[in-house]
Design brief:
Elements: H1 7-60
Length: about 60
Amino acid sequence: MEKKDTPFKRRLDQMEDEEARIEGIFEEEIMDSTKQCREAAAYKKLNHAQTTKEHKNKART
């Protein structure tokens, strides 16, 4: 025969589920912010390269 879950055990399971859900949300936010930082850095790098080319072209003329 199988023992029934006690209220305490059920409460522990619910807390673990809640912690896992919160952890997943934070991981998702970290991944999103990392992606945004990479995109911003790539844009900044591209923009800097373009600006440098423009300055060189102005200096030549």
